[in-house]
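Task card 7
Instruction: Convert sequence to structure tokens.
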Amino acid sequence: MNFSFLGKYWQFYVTGAKNTILLAALAVLFGVAIGLFLALMKLSKRKGLRFIASAYIEFIRGTPLLVQLFIIYYGLQAIGVKFPDIPWIGAILGINFSDFMSGVLTLGINSGAYVAEIFRAGIQAVDPGQTEAARSLGMPHRMAMRYIIIPQAIRNILPALGNEFVVVIKESSIVSIIGIAELMYKADTVRGNTFQPFEPLLVAAFIYFMMTYPLSKLLAHIERRMHTGDR
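Output:
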């Protein structure tokens, strides 16, 4: 084992970890927005909305993330869609902003299908008496969902949403294929520069672990605090 390359290439890993966290955070935010919308569609009384939401969820969950990444990345190029360049973001991250957003879209769209099921289960887990009480007070369905049901559902599903963030951090490594300079891409760059195929990957694995393990412990602590009153 020879890790002497870290003295020269440690900044590669720092930059890659920073981009990975930003990529995962934006993807999860995008996925939560999509997931909540799909969950409400799936719980709708309208058959057409339920069909659209179910079709989206089943298709995304039934196809590989790599295929989805290529479809979005090359599909956006084929139809000429480009995200507006933001020079200062590109300078800070050291990446192509348009490619970066392709990765965010892919991970967000993929995560949204899983978050939708998390939200659906959380909403259905809320005591039906809460809805009945809200309706008895004269609240329309939309207001009851916004102020009564969804806040309680979020409390129930927060640990699952946190776990989804952990999953996205790990799955974000796949966007290195399209040249996004996240952690795995930087590790491959170090491998090519040093001609060491193994050690740079061990460093990358350790950094992934250091990003996900504390987050998992934090989520477990939050979950215990949230259920203190229940006990």
